[in-house]
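Let us practice reading a record.
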Amino acid sequence: IHNLTAVSFSIDKYGKIIDVAIAESSNKPNIDQQLINAVTNMPQWNPAKFTDGTKVKQDFVFTIGDHNSCTLNLLNITQD
């Protein structure tokens, strides 16, 4: 049993939040929806850019909960 929820999303080259989805469910639909809403309603970001200034899309995974869970390995996330 694990206690980890993960939300994946991307920031497009304009800084807009796109492709918000639950990557690992809390198994509580109302909590999953609240997390989607929280990420979707974040302020616009500064987009990622290469050293030459070219703006690019960047993917993120935001995890919430027990970070000692083996689920981290499934999401290819490293812990510092």
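A brief commentary: The radius of gyration is 14 Å.
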